[in-house]
Amino acid sequence: MKQIEIREEADILKIRSEAKEMAQEIGFGLVDQTRIATAVSELARNVFTYAGEGEVRIESDCRPRKGIKITFIDRGPGIEDVELALTDGYSTTRSMGKGLPGAKRLMDRMEIHTHSGKGTKVTVEKWLPE
C-alpha cells in the first residue's frame, strides 16, 4: 500500500503517477491505466479544492477480485447531497461538474462516506478482467 498526502496541487500529479504505475504492475492495459489515472486525478483534485488537504491510499488488494483500490480521505466540509453531487453537470464551484460522476464511470466500484463538517472518504476500485 502507498499512502500519499494531498497538501499542494503538485501532489495531484504524484498521486496520478503512483496509481498508474501500480496499475501497470498489477497487469492493467494502457487504456485501463489511463482510466484509473484520470479518475484519481479528478478525485484528488476534489480533495484539494474542497477540503484543502487529505490523503490517498493506493492498494493492489481489492478482494474478492484482483485489481486496484484507491481511497481518498479528507476532513473537509463533507458532501451535502451525494446523489446530487453524482449528477453530471452539478458543481458548487462553477466547474463542469464532471469529477465525481466521471470518476464513477471510469471505475468498477465507488463508495462514498461523508459527514457534514467532518469530511469525506471516497473509495474506488478497478478490477482486472477475469
From TrEMBL:
Signal peptide: none annotated. It comes from the Bacteria. GO terms for molecular function: ATP binding. The keyword Iron-sulfur does not apply. Residues 31-130 form the Histidine kinase/HSP90-like ATPase domain. Keywords: ATP-binding, Nucleotide-binding. This is ATP-binding protein. Pfam families: HATPase_c_2 (PF13581).
